[in-house]
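Weekly modeling sync, notes
Attendees: S.R. (lead), two postdocs, one rotation student

Agenda item 3: backlog of single-chain predictions. S.R. asked that every request posted to the team notebook include the full sequence so nobody has to chase files. The rotation student volunteered to paste the first one in as an example of the format we agreed on. Action items at the bottom.

Example entry:
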Amino acid sequence: MAALEVPTSSAPPVTTGNTSSQMDSCEGLKCYMVLTEVETKVISSMCFLFGPLTLLENALVLGVITATAMLRQRPSYLFIGSLALADVCASCFFTTSFLSFHLFHHRDGRTAYLFQLGGVTMAFTASVGSLLLTALDRYLCIYQASSYKVLLTRRRALLGLLALWSTTIIISFLPLMGWTCATNFNPPCSRLFPYINKSYLIFWTSFILVVLALILGAYALILWKAHRHVASMSRLQGTTVKGQARMRMDIRLARTFGLILLILIVCWFPVLCFMLADVSVRLTDPQKRVFAFCSVLCLANSSVNPLLYALRCRELRIALLQLLGGLKCQKSMENSSPGLHSGEDNSYTAFSEGDGPVTASTQVNSVSIRVDMPYMNAGK
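Predicted structure, as returned to the notebook:
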């Protein structure tokens, strides 16, 4: 929802002689067309940059997970795949809707607008929800390491994703189902989103804030556990090389999670603040222009997510390289022997060339999927 100022083509309200009605008039929906020509070009350039980049990155992650049988069995990669799918939707819905109005000045009807806004809301809500599932997955990796595989099975992960997307779709399309305003802009309607009731805006913003708070809490507990482990290791006399390596890993873990939290706050906090302000005060045109720029930060967050959550995973990088290597090898075989067809299974597992099988405990870093047992013993 943190994305659109897309208007509708309904007729402007009839104005009376009083000053209040004249102030609330929105002839030609100009009250939503607040961007100057220069600002329109700048934001459009940002959309043209982040939109295709987000689409390509997340489509690549989805393709690797879909093509790799081993990754499809892991709950952690199912959550990452859900995040990538949500960000693909965000790149499509946000970019096309935003540019359609601000750059090409298309004016859709009430139903079409609410459907577009619902698509943007669904994409960003599912993205944040997938981040929550990923954070909870990593929390279980550390605090329930011994029973992690029992607690989080593939079936439970799929049920969690089904619940997430079902809830997201229902919440996102509530305005299309009737939770809306009778007018375009008059109270209790939002001045950022036509037809959107302020009560719905409060509901959605509060929901996102709760989800973000849970994400921050999960990562805070993970960082606290890592800090306890580092403190425990520093008290040991004659620390082994393995212990030193583990300590360095914990420091990298803290830095990575700190970066995740910083990006999450920078990208989402400004937009949510403007939405809360829209409920309580009358936003001016300059404030609406700032909101338009802040909205693009949500799309930028979707372009950064693959780098933070997917491509940092060593197993996924190995699968990507093997997938590219397999395609290259297959093309080479077709060129050299066009009459032969391979009957081998096309699935990929985490193998490195010449080294045989690579187990999860040696290939997956602590940031992405699995945490070794020393985390469980850090406080003992």
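Discussion: group reviewed the output briefly. The mean pLDDT is 75.
Action items: rotation student to repeat for the remaining queue; S.R. to check formatting next week.
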